[in-house]
Specification:
Number of helices: 14
Distance between the termini: 43 Å
Number of strands: 23
Largest sheet: 9 strands, mixed
Strand content: 15-25%
Structural class: alpha/beta
Radius of gyration: 24 Å
Helix content: 25-40%
Length: 493
């Protein structure tokens, strides 16, 4: 079972260290009243600048607590981002100074529940460490606890609920592909979701063959680890008929590229190619854990794209679940193949009002938007705007990309209904672009309000952010949950 280390939240300890916070601007100490004068004097004496990433260790004695002052940056900056980052820097300080537990200021001291919840969430996200493959499961000193007021435990529980779903998604993305095969991934997803009341079914190779998921099976047939499809249902309003939304996540537990094999240094990172699957599974976990009143289904086609004598060949034509034939021009454009069957399954079996798919689909989107934005393609302006608003709230921004009928040629085929790579333009790009991937998937949306989110640049961070250090980010989990919350607020209007 994939597991990870993170902090505990308790309210019944008396640690030797108290955490305080300081901002640039007024220089006011944020924290417990009795310790403010002492901390202020130490800051002046040390000429401490309370920037993000800086902290001041004020040693105590038997009569006085040890104080840890963490800089929060300039006043007036985004409150959520500022306190998320502060929670991460608090964990860094605890790790560096080998402090096992600290007492935090109360909700009122920090300026309200939003600040405290962001601080706690930031600490939980930054204290995350995957446990894998080492005799010392999590090497180095790890902080253990944050001590909070008992009256503030409700905010700690909310922070834990959100961070657990995000951290689970991150742990899946970082898990080596030999340990997280499609079968293992499907079993772990079912275990994680069923405890929240989500109904989960897993389809194996025989069932997928009977269904006719030819695109998914073409991708996965060359691996000893056979494909799966996970169907997870949350009916938050069982009295109401119909399904509000379907999320479809790309679940390539490893992508070698098939016969169009990837090269170094990309290929060894391809365990992350199930980042979209992790995101949609995390989103339904969040929705179920807060008892959302929406009816949603998650479809996750899972496979490995590797090489053996049964591998799909460039030039092969396969029949998808939708009945459309697909020319496989490039075996490394496999994500759109598995998503096509996932989208079709969702529409044919659930007829949802909206379909949103999310995937680490193309390296080209990272070349355009880097690690700051995910690419958004949508058939409906209202859906696109709602998703972008949710991204702003979640701190997971989207950038809408063009999608028009004039781009249909990108996936034209001379021998099949559609090509998975299509036309290459004057500069040698086109068929493998992020837009071509979206145009391919659009063919399977069948008029449903649909959006595609390409997270190839945002699923893995190469630098520190307010939400994570280098590694898997869990991008999309909170975004999709915030979009569902907005959808939920309009139900019954």
């Amino acid at each position: 079972m994939t597991s990870w280390h993170t902090l505990m939240m308790v309210s019944h300890e008396t640690p030797s260290t108290t955490a305080l916070f300081a901002a640039r601007g007024s220089g006011e100490i944020i924290g417990a009243d009795p310790q403010r004068p002492r901390a202020s004097a130490a800051i002046r004496s040390a000429d401490f600048a309370p920037d993000q990433g800086r902290w001041l260790d004020i040693v105590g004695d038997d009569a006085l607590p040890r104080l840890l002052v963490v800089g929060t940056g300039a006043e007036g900056t985004d409150t959520t981002e500022r306190w998320l980052a502060a929670g991460g820097h608090l964990v860094d300080a605890m790790r560096t100074l080998r402090i096992a537990s600290v007492r935090l200021p109360g909700c009122d001291d920090l300026g309200g529940p939003d600040a405290l919840q962001s601080l706690l969430t930031g600490a939980l996200l930054h204290s995350y460490r995957l446990e894998q493959g080492r005799s010392d499961a999590v090497p180095g000193f790890q902080p253990e606890r944050l001590v909070i007021n008992s009256a503030d435990m409700v905010h700690a529980e909310e922070a834990q609920r959100v961070s657990e779903a995000i951290n689970r998604a991150r742990a899946w993305v970082e898990q080596p592909a030999n340990l997280l095969t499609p079968a293992v991934f499907a079993d772990e997803a079912a275990s994680a979701l069923e405890r929240h009341g989500v109904s989960v079914r897993v389809l194996g190779p025989a069932e997928l063959e009977e269904l006719g998921t030819g695109a998914l099976l073409a991708v996965g047939r060359s691996s000893e680890h056979e494909p799966r499809m996970v169907i997870a249902e949350w009916r938050g309003d069982p009295a109401r008929e119909g399904w509000d939304a379907a999320f479809v996540g790309k679940g390539l537990t490893f992508d070698a590229g098939g016969l169009n094999i990837k090269t170094r240094p990309i290929i060894e990172k391809m365990k992350f190619d199930m980042g979209g699957a992790a995101s949609v599974l995390g989103a339904i976990e969040l929705a179920a854990s807060r008892k959302a009143r929406t009816n949603i289904v998650v479809i996750v086609p899972m496979a490995e794209n590797v090489i053996d004598g049964r591998s799909a060949r460039p030039g092969d034509v396969v029949r998808s679940l939708a009945g459309l034939t697909v020319e496989i021009v490039n075996t490394d454009a496999e994500g759109r193949l598995v998503l096509a069957d996932g989208i079709t399954y969702a529409i044919e079996n659930y007829a949802p009002a909206y379909v949103v798919d999310i995937a680490t689909l193309t390296g080209m989107i990272a070349g355009v938007l880097h690690e700051e934005f995910a690419g958004l393609y949508a058939s409906d302006a209202g859906l696109a705007n709602a998703l972008m608003r949710a991204g702003e709230v979640a701190g997971e921004p989207l950038w809408r990309m063009p999608l028009s009928a004039s781009q249909d040629y990108l996936v034209d085929s001379a021998v099949a209904d559609v090509s998975n790579f299509g036309a290459v333009g004057f500069l040698g790009v086109g068929g493998g672009s992020s837009t071509a991937g979206a145009k391919f998937l659009e063919r399977f949306a069948h008029g449903t309000k649909w959006a595609h989110i390409d997270i190839a640049g945002t699923a893995w961070a190469t630098r520190r952010t307010a939400r994570s250090g280098p590694g898997a980010t869990g991008f999309g989990v909170f975004l999709l949950d915030r979009w569902l919350a907005g959808l939920e607020s309009g139900l019954g209007d």
